[in-house]
Design brief:
By secondary structure, this protein is α+β, with helices and mostly antiparallel strands. It has 51 helices and 44 strands. α5 crosses α6, α8 packs across α9 and α24 (about 565-580) packs across α26. GO terms for molecular function: DNA binding; endonuclease activity; hydrolase activity; metal ion binding; RNA binding.
Length: about 1450
């Protein structure tokens, strides 16, 4: 039965919502029948900040790092104050009393800290002890050296201690092994290490080898232990007892207090609160990967996966006794190793060479799979011996409270906790004093040192956490030891507890039932998987009927019986599921066909026509137990029973409608993704509340790759940036050409020639034999991005045709003799990536390969005369490259010891980076070696498998019934199929509307995978057979260009930017990782109305903005000068300027940074020296000039000095340039019918001052504090960066404000306020490019116009200067000359005349980056509007912008 009635078809077409979700944008479109009824774009800050190095960081992380720096500075102050407190208790050590110290060190509300300014203390600080009749020293180093051999006065000794506490050295140097090596090398190269070897202390080394010789000592990286050694030597020389009972237990309490204040460091705060929760026991924390329980479970999991091939080439499980031997003889005795070690061990046991189920390296012939060993278990057994081994064998039976004690009253779990939690100092003390285990001598930093064996073990352990808790793993391990695979062991783990006393008696029967359930589950997965593929294809036919009216079988016919054609479809589906080769080997083919046929028939009998449901393993097991009379009192473990991590939909309080929940969950810490999901929720909920969509709406979402975690994002960018370096690749190409073709070829001189060669059209060339070759037209080559693609493939193949073995000369590379072909034809595999492309001789491709896979080519394994040499041997080079990247990837899967955050991030970034390279080359090799194409390969090309896509789908599924995730590559193909984008044209991203266009495309792509794949298959086949682009329409009367025009002309971009400057952070209070709860004054917990304890919160007191620039600047009085630059003196005193010119703000900069701004140098003498001598400048005394003072922007007072106060008041403050300007005050008044407008920029530090005083910020409070005398302004507005305005040329345009075209053309966003308050910078709402990109495009347009005119006049073209060897400098020089338009215009004038110059100047001035007023016939991307041209309608005053992109007017007039 078939239907073609249009009304009937449309009745069954559900509304579709397309969502194009990016890191800082969200495009959306609603398709209702044959119409895109609603659409829009929202842009927003990404939640991450892109750094100069290309990576990203979250504002949260930046704040944390800034807080860490502040904490470090505070800790240094506390150490100084603590030492001074010790010295103050006996005034003989420092001329300071405790009250003077506390006025500086203790905070009192409403009082500023006051640095002690008594004269004796200041002289004590300057090492001047003449106030006691003592000596004056040049620096504290002299005093520290004297202290080694001569008695000091108490005050001198105190000053020595104070100098030590100001430095105290590095506990360790370098955050990575490489960094440590470089810093150790630095100590050697500078002579510091040698100086230390030849002297007793750091001070003696620095004084004798550096200070006395006038050598600068910088970044010498002294160790803290070297400072501790000096402290002990000085104390001992001054008569103090430095004997110790333990490592740090000094017998002399005074020396102990000095050690604590100078050397001791508090252990790092526990991060227990940041650990995720177990997926099976949600109330328990995840287990560290170094825990013996985790190591044991991981080892058994791996062992149970090992299979060997018997004599009939069938896979067999290892015998149970052999598994136990493998665990005891290999795993527990190794850290990390290769499967090859397992192979050697098992071969010995089998007494023959055996094949195993792990990949064998073609390069080495060995099993290279990396295997995680048991570092802690292995290490602790070596240290403690058999008692540790015996304890580990049954560790899952105990917890830390009842585990057997194995050494001096401590269990194996106690020892692990000490290794895991203690720092090295405490761990060494624990090892020596509690466990009575002696140290061992090892090399560290190229020195022999005595270390605790537990400290050595700690440094070998990996830091990280698994997915499960210790509690869950302890239940799983017994079943792993019995040989069960992980999933089965998880399912069985809770049975002993749930069955209690009955477990032992029914154990054997239950385990048999579990095995039966697993077999049933595996069988169901095959049958349901094949059946659902058939159902998907049928649903594709139904969708095709809805869209086009094409007939469909069995519609509403629930008694339909399968036909012979249907049965053939069943057979084909089975073959497609397994692949032809695998299917032929199946012995149960008839049974599978029969079962699939039954399920497919049941689908047609089903009135709901739903996909066949796949039962979970847990449900099958429950059912099996129930049938056999076994009842359970609780739920089993299993990952498949996990609920939606986002929970369920919630109810809107105002309307009672169900809406999406808040998308923030503990398991996702990615701020960029969370930000995007929050905006997505806001949009979708608004559409629900407005009645535009409901739960039956089909949702199709595409998620951008950059929403992955930061480390993966950095790796992707690194990988992509490498592939973008076109110029470097051309240079490599020419180097290759120089080597192979033309020995005298000058690479550097011909780079530009080659670029032009790629850009120009040359219709015929000649090969080496002189044969004429007809090339493709230039437009054809470049339109397919072919020049670069061909070149890259050619380089990968080292200039050789992979099929014939012949070399491809450069003269033929861009000719019709060479094809870019699909290794596996696109009719078999929808893959157009570089991994599936090859450059080869067109003759071979068309006459020999055709639609064959390489494996089936005639010369795959042997040379054939007239065709080519064997293909397979040529793959060895690719396999070597693949194996290399695989090795690099696997070496970064796990840490090799303790990692800080930076080292961990770098390892993870490199893991992702090398994985991308490995997967690329693996795909490349597989395309040449495979003999079949499975359905799963095609699905991988079409289905988005990103984790972020899965999370997005799961979130939307809390409300919508049907949610599909579309891969970006699929969307790109359908843009071409439906005519949104021309073949081989690069998608334009200049306007934000491209997000809405993509969202519209998503609604047009068939949701049904079979129908979608059929359209893609048609496209690939047409491209392969005819070289043309396949195109079609999603429905009758569809016109893609009309839709694009509608979207671009009727879309207002919503720039969603929440003002968070004054938003205060609130966080849960934790101590040692545990949540704290509110208590009353009696210590009792306070509860809420539900009787639950209230979590204690701490609230910040911050402003989320840059208050000041990052560096301090100086403030000086500017001296008057004579015309020759000499300072003016009167009566022997400097004569300073007065009034506004009295003071200058200065900044000290390195010489290299000011060479381009010499006029900013303050000292006129130094200025002229640098102007002439440049980077080699020396001052009048002959000293090399390293830094100079230059003029800086006006500074603001940051804080008051608390020490070394001056009699000059302006010197008693720290200054810095103002930070960001987030707000501005717009003032307007009418004077004699003339409107006068004024803007006052509001800097962040001013916002903070208002907020600190009033705990809020408002326009009125700001004006009251900073501009109390302003009056006469009838209209005042507070403007904000990010605020929207409608630009009016004059008041007459006010009447057009509600016209959509007018709104689209005149809507702008405020991006910046000028410091002087005279200009506002605006950005057009549709403009997606940064101002730097627009400026670059404008400059390129100007360059093209000038070049065209210069060519007409015979003026030489501007080319790169190849005599500049440094490529960066060469590029900089080239661009400087290229974009120096004034010089080029002057050149035109000199060659022609002034009139011509004026004409050309007028032509290039038509292109501007920023306009100062709104021009006619042009919509500027950027405006820089001065106060004379301000005429706006303001967001929040005149209108609001809804999240759906509509202007809501706030005034009815």
């Amino acid at each position: 039965m078939s239907f073609s009635d249009t009304k009937l078809r449309k009745k069954y077409i559900m509304a579709k919502l397309g969502l194009d979700l990016g890191s800082s944008s969200l495009g959306w479109a609603i398709r209702d029948g044959d119409e895109i009824s609603k659409k829009g774009v929202i842009t927003f800050p990404s939640g991450m900040v892109k750094g100069q190095g290309g990576g990203y960081s979250s504002p949260t992380r930046d704040r944390r790092e800034a807080r860490s720096k502040r904490n470090l500075i505070r800790a240094r102050k506390y150490r100084k104050w603590k030492l001074l407190e010790i010295l103050c208790k006996n005034s003989e050590y420092v001329p300071l009393n405790i009250l003077q110290l506390e006025s500086w060190s203790k905070y009192k509300k409403g009082q500023a800290r006051m640095f002690p300014e008594n004269e004796k203390f200041l002289r004590w600080l300057s090492c001047d002890f003449s106030y006691q009749g003592g000596e004056m020293y040049k620096n504290p180093y002299e005093l520290r050296v004297k202290a080694l051999d001569q008695p000091l006065t108490k005050h001198e000794f105190g000053r020595v201690l104070y100098h030590l506490v100001q430095r105290r050295g590095y506990k360790d140097i370098g955050e990575s092994d490489k960094e440590t090596e470089s810093q150790i090398k630095r100590r050697g190269e500078s002579g510091f290490q040698k100086a230390l070897d030849n002297n007793r202390t750091i001070a003696e080394a620095l004084k004798n080898e550096f200070l006395d010789k006038g050598i600068r000592a910088r970044n010498e990286y002294p160790y803290r232990e070297e400072y501790q050694n000096e402290l002990e030597l000085i104390c001992k020389a001054q008569g103090y007892n430095v004997s110790r009972d333990g490592k740090y237990d000094y017998q002399d309490q005074f020396v102990l207090s000095l050690w604590k204040s100078i050397v001791w460091q508090r252990p790092l705060r526990s991060q227990k609160g940041a650990i995720g929760k177990c997926t099976l026991e949600p109330s328990k924390l995840r287990c560290p990967v170094s825990h013996p329980i985790f190591e044991i479970s991981r080892a058994w999991q791996f062992i149970n996966t090992i299979k060997y091939y018997d004599k009939d080439d069938e896979k067999q499980n290892l015998p149970e006794d052999l598994k136990e031997l493998l665990f005891n003889d290999v795993f527990i005795k190794k850290d990390n190793f290769k499967f090859e070690d397992i192979r050697r061990y098992l071969d010995k046991k089998f007494k023959q060479k055996t094949k195993y189920n792990y990949p064998l390296s073609k390069k080495t012939g060995k099993y290279e799979t990396s295997v995680s060993g048991m570092p802690f278990c292995n290490g602790i057994i070596k240290i403690l011996g058999d008692v540790a081994y015996d304890s580990l064998m049954n560790i899952e039976k105990y917890n830390i409270g009842n585990a057997p004690k194995i050494i001096n009253g401590y269990s194996i779990l106690d020892v692990w906790h000490a290794v895991f939690d203690f720092d090295e100092e405490y761990l060494e003390a624990f090892t020596n004093e509690k466990l009575k285990v002696e140290n061992t001598t090892v090399k560290r930093n190229k020195k022999e040192v005595s270390l605790s064996p537990l400290v050595i073990l700690k440094n070998k352990l990996t830091v990280g956490y698994g997915d499960l808790s210790v509690k869950a793993l302890k239940k799983i391990i017994p079943f792993l030891k019995q040989g069960y695979l992980y999933n089965d062991a998880v399912m069985l783990a809770k049975l002993p507890k749930l069955m209690g006393n009955e477990w032992e008696s029914q154990k054997e029967d239950i385990l048999k039932l579990a095995k039966s359930s697993q077999e049933t589950y595996n069988w169901c997965r095959i049958i349901v998987g094949i059946t659902n593929n058939l159902i998907d294809a049928y649903k594709g036919e139904v969708e095709d009927w809805r869209e086009t009216g094409k007939s469909v079988k069995a519609w509403k016919d629930f008694g339909y019986l399968l036909t012979e054609d249907d049965k053939r479809e069943v057979i084909n589906a089975c073959i497609g599921y397994f692949g032809e080769t695998s299917w032929d080997k199946r012995k149960d083919k008839e049974t599978i066909i029969s079962e699939v046929g039954k399920e497919y028939q049941e689908f047609f009998f089903d009135s709901k026509r739903v996909y066949r449901e796949m039962p979970t393993l847990t449900s099958l097991f429950f059912e099996t137990l129930s049938v056999n009379g076994i009842k359970l009192s609780g739920e089993l473990y299993h990952h498949s029973t996990r609920k939606n991590i986002y929970g369920t939909k919630v109810t809107d309080k105002n309307t009672g409608k169900d809406i999406l929940p808040i998308p923030l969950i503990d398991s996702i810490k990615n701020p960029m993704f969370n930000k995007s999901m929050s905006i997505l929720r806001r949009l979708v909920n608004e559409l629900i509340l407005k009645g535009e969509i409901d739960k039956d709406t089909e949702v199709v979402v595409e998620v951008a790759r950059e929403l992955n975690d930061n480390n993966k994002r950095v790796a992707i960018e690194r990988y992509q940036n490498e592939r973008r370096k076109k110029r470097e690749k051309i240079r490599a190409f020419l180097e290759e050409f120089k080597t192979k073709e033309n020995k005298s070829f000058n690479v550097e001189e011909r780079i530009r020639d080659f670029e032009l060669w790629c850009e120009q059209s040359f219709e015929e060339t000649f090969d080496k034999s002189g044969k004429k070759i007809v090339n493709k037209k230039n437009s054809e080559i470049l339109s397919e991005k072919k020049a670069i693609r061909r070149y890259e493939l050619w380089m990968e193949q080292k200039g050789q045709c992979m099929y014939t073995g012949k070399m491809i000369p450069i003269a033929q590379l861009f000719s019709n003799d060479i094809d870019v072909e699909h290794t596996i034809p696109r009719s078999l595999l929808p893959d157009n990536t570089m991994a599936n492309l090859t450059v080869c001789y067109a003759k071979y491709n068309r006459e020999n390969k055709g639609k064959l896979m390489p494996f089936f080519c005639e010369n795959y394994e042997e040379d054939l005369a007239g065709i080519g040499t064997a293909i397979k041997p040529r793959l060895r080079e690719w396999e070597k490259t693949m194996d290399n990247y695989k090795s690099l990837f696997e070496s970064r899967l796990k840490s090799t010891g303790n990692e800080d955050e930076a080292k961990k991030n770098k390892r993870i970034q490199e893991k992702h980076y090398f994985r991308m390279h490995y997967e690329y080359w693996k795909d490349k090799v597989e395309r040449f070696t495979t003999d079949e194409v499975k359905d799963s390969w095609a699905r991988r090309q079409l289905v988005d498998t990103q984790m972020v896509s899965k999370y997005a789908r799961e979130f939307l599924k809390t409300y919508f019934k049907k949610v599909a995730v579309q891969k970006g590559e699929v969307t790109a193909q359908f843009r071409k199929i439906y005519g949104f984008q021309e073949t081989d044209k690069i998608k334009s991203r200049n306007k934000h509307t491209h997000h809405a266009i993509d969202a519209a495309v998503l609604t047009l792509i068939p949701v049904n995978s079979s129908r979608r794949d059929a359209l893609l298959d048609k496209m690939y086949k047409m491209e392969e057979r005819e070289g043309k682009q396949f195109s079609t329409k999603p429905f009758d009367l569809f016109n893609s260009q009309e839709l694009i025009n509608v979207i671009e002309s009727q879309t207002l971009i919503v720039n969603y930017e929440k003002d968070k400057i004054l938003q205060q952070t609130v966080k849960n209070v934790r101590k040692r990782g545990k949540l704290q709860y509110v208590k009353d004054k009696y210590g009792n917990f306070v509860t809420d109305e539900k009787g639950e304890k209230i979590i204690k919160k701490s609230q910040g007191d911050t402003v989320r903005s840059t208050l000041y620039k990052q560096t301090f600047i100086g403030k000086i009085r500017d001296v008057g000068r004579y015309p020759d630059g000499q300072p003016i003196r009167e009566n022997g005193e400097w004569k300073y300027k007065t009034g506004e010119d009295e003071f200058l703000f200065t900044e000290r900069k390195p010489l290299k940074d000011v060479l381009s701004k010499v006029d900013d140098i303050i000292d006129p003498v130094i200025r002229e020296i640098i102007r002439t001598q440049k980077s080699q400048a020396t001052d009048p005394q002959g000293n090399k000039i390293r830094h100079v003072r230059v003029k800086s922007k006006a500074g603001q007072v940051v804080k008051q000095r608390v020490n070394y106060r001056s009699k000059h008041e302006y010197k008693n403050y720290y200054y810095s340039a103002a930070g960001s300007i987030p707000y501005a005050v717009m003032l307007q008044k009418n004077i004699n019918d003339k409107i006068e407008r004024k803007i006052i920029p509001v800097a962040s530090f001013e916002v903070s001052k208002v907020f600190m005083e009033h705990k809020k910020f408002s326009l009125e409070l700001y004006l009251e504090m900073f501009h109390p005398n302003l009056s006469g302004y009838q209209d005042t507005k507070l403007l904000k960066v990010g605020q929207k305005v409608l630009m009016l040329n004059d008041d007459s345009e006010f009447e057009q404000r509600k016209d959509m075209e007018f709104q689209k053309n005149r809507l702008y966003r405020i991006t910046q306020f000028a410091n002087d308050g005279k200009r506002i910078m605006l950005k057009y709402h549709l403009e997606a490019q940064a101002i730097t990109d627009v400026r670059k495009n404008v400059n390129e347009q100007k360059h093209k116009i000038l070049t065209s005119e210069e060519v007409k006049m015979g003026i030489s073209e501007i080319l790169e200067n190849t005599s500049i060897t440094n490529l960066a400098d060469r590029k900089k020089d080239f661009e400087k000359r290229k974009y120096n338009f004034n010089d080029r215009l002057n050149k035109i004038e000199s060659v022609s005349n002034k009139l011509k110059k004026t004409q050309v100047k007028k032509m290039i001035n038509n292109y501007q980056t920023e306009y100062s007023s709104f021009p006619e016939n042009i919509i500027p991307s950027f405006l820089k509007i001065s106060n004379n041209n301000w005429n706006f309608l303001y967001e929040n005053y005149d209108f609001k912008v809804s999240i759906l992109g509509k202007l809501i007017w706030l005034k009815n007039d």
